[in-house]
Specification:
Blueprint lengths: L6 H6 L8 H19 L3 H7 L2 H10 L2 H8 L4 H13 L19 H15 L10 H18 L6 H4 L11 H13 L5 H8 L1
Helix pairs in contact: 2-3, 2-4, 2-8, 7-8
């Protein structure tokens, strides 16, 4: 059975339909992540919750690295962490290990949270607790890949035009298009909103 992820899966989480040069790099990264999850300790349990198509989406979901590099600290995951810090005094909502959370790095807490969030949005049969060991195992399985790739991951200039809006924008239709893109064509919210209307 062919377990590779193909470009159409990667593009499902993008606001554009034609592949750009950096997509090839991130597709390769998604396949490395999928292999690590399938071979690692957390992958077996993940497989019991996810079909192969969902596993492909999960691996593409790690496009947060893509967004993190392209937008520095202005990507959606960083913005949500910053907002959580401002409102509640800690960077993540479910993990108490705040001491080992570094703003300019890939953090295991963020990866664990993203896997947990993904699982609870893509399947609706069971609520999965964020404290399940298999989530930590799965995050642990992919962290070496993310740590290594983060150092030289290419920036996608093309995607910036879709996820940037002038703070002083007064055109209702431009603002609405931006909101639609974020809600329905972004890696972070696709499984929660975009997948439901696909």
């Amino acid at each position: 059975m062919d377990n590779r992820i193909y470009i159409q899966w990667w593009l499902r989480l993008k606001p554009y339909t034609k592949q750009v040069l950096t997509d090839t790099y991130y597709l390769g990264l998604s396949n490395k992540i999928k292999q690590a999850l399938e071979e690692g300790g957390g992958g077996y349990v993940l497989g019991s919750y996810l079909h192969n198509d969902d596993m492909n989406l999960l691996c593409c979901f790690f496009g947060f690295l893509h967004g993190r590099y392209s937008f520095r600290n202005q990507h959606m995951a960083a913005l949500s962490v910053n907002q959580h810090q401002a409102h509640y005094g800690k960077k993540t909502s479910i993990f108490n290990d705040q001491m080992n959370h570094f703003d300019d790095e890939i953090n295991q807490q963020d990866v664990t949270f993203l896997i947990w969030y993904f699982l609870n949005t893509v399947q609706e049969e069971k609520f999965i607790s964020p404290y399940n060991d298999f989530l930590l195992d799965a995050a642990h399985d992919v962290m070496p890949i993310l740590d290594e790739e983060y150092e030289y991951a290419p920036e996608n200039e093309h995607i910036k035009q879709y996820y940037a809006l002038n703070e002083n924008e007064t055109d209702y239709y431009k603002a609405r298009k931006f909101i639609d893109t974020v809600l329905f064509s972004s890696y972070l919210l696709f499984t929660d909103t975009g997948l439901k209307i696909a």
